[in-house]
Amino acid sequence: MPQNASRAAGRHFLQIPGPTPVPDRVLRAMDTPLIDHRGPEFAKLAKRCLDGIKTIFKTTNPVIIYTATGTGAWEAALVNTLSPGDRVLMVETGQFANLWKTMAEKLGLKPEFIKGDWRTGADPAAIEEHLRKDKTHEIKAVCVLHNETATGCLSPIDPIRKAINAAGHPSLLMVDTISSLASTDYRHDEWGVDVTVGGAQKGLMMPPGMSFNAVSEKALRASKTAKLPRSFFQWDDMLNMYKQGFFPYTPATQMLYGLDTAIEMLHEEGLDNVFARHDRLAEATRRAVRAWGLEILCRDPQYYSPTVTAVLLPDGHDADRFRGIALNTFNIAYGASFGPYAKKYFRIGHLGDINDATLIGALGATEMALKLAGVPHNKGGVQVAMDYIVSAQSGATRAAAE
Ligand SMILES: Cc1ncc(COP(=O)(O)O)c(C=O)c1O
Known about the structure:
Layout: E1 13-15, H1 24-30, H2 40-57, E2 63-66, H3 70-81, E3 87-91, H4 95-106, E4 110-114, H5 124-133, E5 139-145, E6 147-148, E7 153-154, H6 157-166, E8 172-176, E9 195-199, E10 211-215, H7 217-225, H8 235-242, H9 253-269, H10 271-292, E11 295-296, E12 308-312, H11 319-330, E13 332-334, E14 345-349, H12 356-372, H13 381-401
Parallel strand pairs: 1-13, 3-4, 3-5, 5-8, 8-9
Antiparallel strand pairs: 2-10, 6-7, 9-10, 11-12, 12-14
Helix pairs in contact: 1-9, 2-9, 5-6, 9-10, 10-12, 10-13, 11-12, 12-13
The protein binds pyridoxal-5'-phosphate.
C-alpha cells in the first residue's frame, strides 16, 4: 500500500490457516434479524444445524455445538471424559499440541508427551509402543491433532486408532480437527474416534467463535463417571436441550444461520470435491515452494498437510520481516512461526473458500514479496504451480467429458 494511503485497494488476501475468508453467501445468511431462541423458527434452524454438522464429521452420534473458539472445545473434550490425575498420551507435533498439553496440565491431568521435532505428524507405531508399556491401563485418553496448523503436518487417524487397538488398550481417542475438518477426509465413526474437536473458522468457512465436540457412545459413557469439574461445557445439559431443539443458554443465533449455509454449500460442491480441491491447491503450493528452491517445514511427504504449507526461509532471513513486507506491499497475510522455528518460516494457508485462481494470485504475491524482501530464490514457482493446476484440471475436464 502506498505510504500516503490509509486504505488498500482490492480484496485482502487472507492466506493465514484460519480464520479463512467467509463466503459472501454465509455473511448474507448471518445478516438477518434476530429471532426468539426459544421459538419455533429457531428450533428448525437448530435441527438443521445439529443434523447437518453430523454429515461433516461423518457420525450418527450427537455433535455438541459450543459458543466458544476451538480452545473451548479442547477443554470440553477433556473435562467431560476425564478425572483429576488421569494420565493422557499426547504427541508433540507443534505449537497447538503444546497448548492442548498445557491445558491438560492446568486441568489437573497428567499428560505424557511423545517428543517430536515439529517436522512430522504423529507416528502410530510410537503410540502403540507407549501404550503397550501401560500394562495396567492407567492412560485414559490418547489426544492427537489431525492437522498441526503450526507446522503443516497431518497425522494418520485411522492407523492411530488401529495402533491403540493393536496394543489391546482401552484408551479413548480424542482428535483435534480444527484445521482439517471440511477440508480433508475425516470419518469420526468409521475411524473409531471418541471425541472429535472441531472449529468453525477454517474449513467450515465461518467467523471464529463456534466449536464442536463429536462424541462416541464410549465417550458418553465415560462422561457419566468423569470427575473433572464442568458447567458451561457439560455435554448432558446440551444434549438434553437439543432434544427439544434448544440450547441451555442463549445460542449464537447468527452463527447458526452461517453454519446452516456453510454446510449447504459444502454439500453443493460435494465433500469429495472439496477434499480434491484442497489436495490440488496444497500440491500446487508445494511445487511452487520447491521451484523457488525453498524448504517445506514438513520433512516427510506422508505427513504433508492439505490445508497449510510452512515454508522455511534460508538462514539469516527473518520470516516476520518477509511477512511485513508482503502485507504492506501486496495486502497478503500469512501465518506466523512458533517455538524452535520462530521467525524462520511463514505459513501459506490454502483452505476454506479458495479456488485455483485465488491460490495463483497468492503465490504470485509471494514470489514478488520474496524478491522485494531480498530472499534468495529461483523464479518461476508460480509457473510450476499453474502447470500443475492445468494438468490436474485437464484430467478432470477430460473425465467430465467422457
Ligand atoms: C489445530 C488447532 N487446534 C486448536 C486451535 C485453537 O483454536 P482457537 O484459536 O479457535 O481457540 C487452533 C487455532 O488455530 C488450531 O489450529
